[in-house]
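Hello again,

I reread your note about wanting to compare the complex against the isolated chains. To keep things tidy I'm splitting this into two emails, and this first one only covers the full assembly. Below are the input lines as submitted, including protein chains and any nucleic acid or small-molecule components. They are followed by the predicted structure of everything together. The single-chain runs will come separately.
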Amino acid sequence: MAEVTVGGLRFHVQRLGPEGGVPVVFLHGLIMDNLSSWFFTAAPKVAAQQPVLLYDLRGHGKSERPATGYGVPDMVADLCGILDESLPADQRVELVGNSFGGLLALAFALARPERVRGLCLVDGQVHDEAFGPEMEASLGLEGRERDEMIARSFKDWLGRHSERKRNRLARNASELVHGTSLVRDIAHSAPPSAEDVGRVSCPVLALYGEHSDVRERGEDLAARLPNAQLEIIEGCTHSLLWEQTAQLEQRVLAWVGREPGPGEED
Amino acid sequence: MSDTLQTVGRMIQEVIGDDWDLDQAITTETSFGDDLELESIEFVSLAEALKEEYGAEVDFVGWLSTKELDEIIKLKVGDVVEFIDLCRSSN
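Full-complex prediction:
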């Protein structure tokens, strides 16, 4: 397995595509997700035109699962470390984040603006004051209620599953939620201020599902970002990556391959 | 059984590891999703194993880039074997 070690933790990474060009880094969602959701959708298509870097967030997929250290700043530091290990120090990247991956992409752009050429948020979670408490409430459930929530939210691209596989996946998710400090750490990560968000000057494409429960906050976020363009994908929910896969892939492909804007350099 | 099928079958068993059902025979008709219940992250490991085995000769990711998600979900072992044989015969 291809790995990069950052801060003593092993991360599962996949690098695809050519050597030259602006690298595109894909970020996946929380708990049930891992790099495979991008590996089997937009990543190979983007890799046909420019370099691609995928990795499993700490605790997810095949990356190491420490007991603690899951705050947003920790995950930003992970991404910094992985880029430092994988790319030249001055190489700017395009970040494409799904759900929590979108939140992380924006946090990274705030922490390391010199590293970011552009962002694409795919129904990106919005880190406002309500995000932490809401997440803690939905993932902090116990017993049967918790298992039902995990079963409901579970979506693997391979679709149908036997009881055995479903249980295995739910158990894995449950271990992440209850065996680590992930929920507490993310819930207690300080959201960026309005001034911070106003400082993100790179181009941002914000894609939200028409019926997504995050849409309103996504629209608000896009309005506060100085250089964002908002697009609503008709008929979709928060799972737009799975509901309009081909359309989304085309949109991402065009976005990350766009020409530099006036005054921009690659 | 063709050599390629045998190689791919061995890789699948390695990827699935301890969860492998010893009674399960892998044929060209075996599907990754419905039959093997391969998790998507395990399928990534299989792609990596293919790259290690065949190198640049077999561009599995390039092949995936030509496919829609629905097609990938329905892939059978025989589709991958056929693709590998095609790449190797044209080189």
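For quick reference: Chain B has a mean pLDDT of 89.

B.
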